## 1
Amino acid sequence: MTTLELLVTAAVHPVPGIRSLTLAAPDGRDLPGFVPGSHLVIECGGRSNAYSLTSDGTAPTSYTVSVLEVPDGSGGSRWVHRELRVGEVVTARLPRSLFPPVARAAKHLLVAGGIGVTPIVSHLRAARTWRRETEVHYVFREGRGAHVDDVLALTDGAAELHTDRAEFCARLEKALADQPLGTHLYVCGPAAMIDHVLDTARGLGWPESRLHCERFGLDALDPGDPFDVTLTATGTTVRVPSGTSLLEALETSGVDVPNLCRQGVCGECRIPVAAGTPLHRDLFLTEEEKAAGDALMACVSRSAGPSLEVPL
Amino acid sequence: MTALASSAAELIAGFPFPFPEDRYRYSTNVEPAGRSVSTPAGQWGAAVVDIDGEYAAELAERADILRRDPTRAEVLPHMQPAAWDAAMTLMRELATAYPSTMTLERLGDARWRWTNGLLGLTQEFVYGDGGTLPEEPLRWIAGQVQEDVVLLDQRDQLYGDAGVVTFAADWSFGFDVGMSFLEIHGPVPRVREEGVITRAHEFLKRLQPHQPYRRTNWTLTIGRRLDVSTELYPEWGPDREMIQRVDDATFGRLVHLRVEVQHLVRLPDSGAIMFLIRTYMLPLELLATVESWRRRAAEVLAELPADMADYKGIIKYRDRAASWLRAAGGEAP
Ligand SMILES: Cc1cc2nc3c(=O)[nH]c(=O)nc-3n(C[C@H](O)[C@H](O)[C@H](O)COP(=O)(O)OP(=O)(O)OC[C@H]3O[C@@H](n4cnc5c(N)ncnc54)[C@H](O)[C@@H]3O)c2cc1C
Ligand code: HEM
Ligand code: FES
């Protein structure tokens, strides 16, 4: 089970431009738990978009996400805002954790900008359960702050809210200069803001190991470009669409390739390459083997060009 | 040494024979968990936690070891959430695998009721509230599964910062606690040059919740002795000399193929890695009753490179084990 069918049980517009969805299993069962800072990848009318979970991840019965409408984007967020209705079912992958809290941190300094508050909210929920010390700075445009009530409630009103950029920057610099040893910094928001916060921290001598950020703009999951693979043993050509692995495409066309992990680690699915340039994305082959270009791991790697030839 | 509660037939039927080929080398041999594997004698691997006829005996032995040597269990302070997460995850796994005897009911927000019918135990608790369990959560749940448990915290690397390990095969949890995954594997030969451990480390760092993986590891152990920890070396170390002098019948009865089924689980709440080690042992005399196992185990033991045999502590008797197995099938030794 790596995908979930989720029923939209509620949808609200807490502030202009943001739609918050509540999702549950259609049969009301418990949902898979998630580590604070995790996101769901949801199929949004033909696009697969990541949305941070803002609910409590411990033994959840529902999930919530908040989606900012990006009007000139490729349409996923617009679909969530304009097309998706309460009572409909969406397909999502299991929650993924890439922005977790650090268990040994003496204190958690959480900095959020705009819609970047979403993963911070789930961090705050866990911090409350485990009585972690936190300090929160949240900057947003006046009247557009999502989850302001949650952030205030979860910090007993201690979160510092900022709607003026210059004031935020000045306050941030002071805050970064004045933290107990062992504090970890977590920042999520627009790319420019993340860069500014991290640069300021580095300038003040923060070590990299204490800095954590999540970028919404980066493509976390790369489905890859489509390509053709020619099987020289039979002379047939198989199309590998974007989002389908070479391994899956070979299996579908009746070619069995031994495999175990399907994650580019175990080395089982290595296949030779007769022509074309592999796009290596695995952890198995050494740098030299990758450079040689005469083999690839079919479960994760693809073609750098429009076609590959394999002696299968 | 554990007194056996199961029949020979039960032990053979559930035995996870570990050799897919006639030659064994270290590899990052991980595969998705939960798939049942059929063997010529039965099957294994359907569940992440496995209860067999040795349940009561092994739990009693674990409790006894922990009473005598508390350093077999440790939960560093920052691992408290992970310990709760492990307890909860193991209860869920037990309830899923053994629904007729194990149940986990939600009573309210964070309140739960756990029933372990095999132990006649009912426990209500509040998740995260230490006062609601009779013991520290990891120790408490380790008293209900046959698996050893290590919890790894992920910082720049993975660190073994908590665990309950009573059945270690020639290592010491008390010594390793707090060490990084790479340091823990420092003594293993070959794996650095071959990248096995660095690859495993990268894999574990990326492992996501709800997608458990597993692997097997193996060695030979003399006598049905689960606790061959470094701490007890003076007790079992001399057996490696003794075994060279016993007659063939005794050899086949005492020498066991010891297999660990290890599960790798990203805990869904704390984000820690849970490493489960479930130990199975089968004496050569029973192993030899399954022809394909007898033949293959003999090949693997005979061919195993000396540095690996030395590391596993079997260099002095693995040749005899191979000949014993060959002779048991009427082959030339
Ligand atoms: C790990 C992760 C977590 C995320 N969590 C959330 C979340 O909780 N809520 C949310 O609304 N979005 C979140 N996003 C962004 C989301 O996945 C989509 O990128 C966004 O909804 C725009 O999608 P689109 O299909 O409309 O347009 P796209 O074509 O995907 O986006 C158009 C462009 O806008 C950029 N962009 C993405 N997000 C923003 C933004 N917030 N402001 C300005 N530009 C942006 C993209 O990089 C792209 O260049 C997250 C992204 C990642 C990788
Ligand atoms: C995919 C994951 C892993 C791989 C591939 C791996 C591989 C290995 C190998 C090849 C050995 C040598 C075994 C032998 O010859 O008997 C070993 C030993 C060991 N492994 Fe792992 N391992 C993994 C995960 C772990 C984890 C998560 C732990 C947790 C702490 C762990 C703890 C140990 C210990 C304690 C030893 C004994 C080391 C000693 O001699 O002191 N392993 N491992
Ligand atoms: S299946 Fe493991 S590397 Fe591809």
Note: Chain A touches chain B at residues 1-2, 30, 32-36, 57-59, 94-97, 100-104, 126, 129-130, 209, 260-263, 265-267, 283-284, 286 (CB under 8 Å).
## 2
Amino acid sequence: MDFMYYGDILVVDLEAGTTEEVEIDEAWEAGPVLPAALELFDKHAQDDPLIFGSGILTGTTAPASCLGFALGASPITGGPAVAPLNLFAGAEMKLSGFSMVLIKGNSPGPVYLWLHDGVADLVDASRITGKDTWQTCDAVRDEMGEQLIQVISIGPVGEAKSDLASFSINYWGSGDNAALGALMGAKNLKAVALRGLGMIDAEDPEEFYNRTMGLLPGLPSEKSFDWAFEGLGEGGLDAWLGPLVHRYRSCFACPCACNTFVKYNEDPAVMGSDGVQEPGLMVTNPAAALWLGQGGWSPEGASRAMEAMARAGVDVVRGSREISAEPLEAPGEIAAAVEALTGPAEAAWPPGEGPAEGGIFGPWTPPSSSGDRWLEVNRAAYVLGVCPLFLAASGVEREDLLELCVPAAGIKLDAGGIKEMFDRARA
Amino acid sequence: MRVKVKPLECTGCALCELACGYHRDEAFSMISSSVMLYRAEEKKGYMGVIVKTAEDLFIGKPEGAAAMKLGELQKEGASGGASAKPILVREACDMCESAGLEPQCVAICPQKALYLE
Ligand code: SF4
Ligand code: SF4
Ligand code: SF4
């Protein structure tokens, strides 16, 4: 594929400690998108593959084009499961110089994979074994001397291969509801670190750019999707977190900003960076806040608990469900409760919601997280590289985004074609 | 007339960087734009936007926004931290004149955090 992707597919053999670049199978006209990854997953099933990739529009001016993916066999379901790479990780994945990364086998010793500008290195991770995800992110960034590296890492819980494990993205909880963090632990893969200074070309750049600019004015730019969190009372998540809110953050290229930075170790009104080194948390898993809030936790206690889970590499949503019934306030007690977490295997979600059909796509974010609609949204989202929550909740016309694939890469796509791609991959 | 920043309105989407980069390279990247999102202190939730012109940097920090002459900046030891250095070697903002367009970073910003004055 000449446009929208940058670089070949990388195959990493952890057992042998080698990396190799292979060309993309031209049979996949839409390029190295999720259905192509599903086919690769089946082909390499005996090597227990973990695959990272992105969508057609990822990393461009298309709205919410932040999305990449991780695909592996979920230790919970035993089947393939997808976790979103949002924030800046999906775009960085695409710009790293590799279109897709297939990681097979298990490493004899702890390593992390460092992808940057078309170069792939397996780096000894014994120095950071046992470290939490915050320490891991800091250590990788310091070691490589670059603070903008995106670090997908596991903490001690992933290293222990717990079913409650989840990878974190930099310091924050991810949408890995399928325990792919435990799969990383089984592989002795402490982290995947990404930095890309690459460029993404469109087939007809002017047409593509103008169309994306034309879409933006009609889109919401709310700083949250409050309506999704009525369970926390009037005003939803924002009102509940209210006194702790410092700022709102977007993922890459998203006009909305549903990530909320809260401060509880420092006055949220402090705007400078000279004070407390670790003032709080970016709430990236609103569903976790929903569990804790409905369980009677205070916003501060809940935030501390979410921080402890993101650090340990516990799935913040499933972990929050586990501890929701017994609200705690004291930081020491919260830390102990998170440390003691050993969860049941099934993915947790508020009653009435659940993983989409087939279990490939995790629930990630309510309220549209079950049934055929969520499945369809996810299929389109991952092929496009556009956040599924944005696609489901912003009112953007899916057809408008699908049509962008023509100037982007000369690809004509519709919902039926996307379904066919998934059917073909799973055949 | 220049591009200025209301730093507290910014949510850090980087669309301004992409739009400026596109105007320079007709491709999407985050390395060649004259406007840059400062996001190196992620753990602190600290974030700002810097615009490079031929004479100065307009630095929109959460504590306040102001222009700083390039000379002063070097004397001060590159205020703006880790990301100030790359922006010093980038091309200066030309208000998108070379592309014959209105300032694209301002046009694309969904939060209206960038404005002309
Ligand atoms: S809708 Fe929220 S999660 Fe999705 S891209 Fe936008 S900010 Fe990120
Ligand atoms: S006005 Fe144009 S050249 Fe200047 S920073 Fe904005 S996009 Fe770049
Ligand atoms: S486009 Fe606006 S909101 Fe996005 S990073 Fe630039 S200034 Fe901030």
Note: The longest strand of chain A covers residues 189-195.
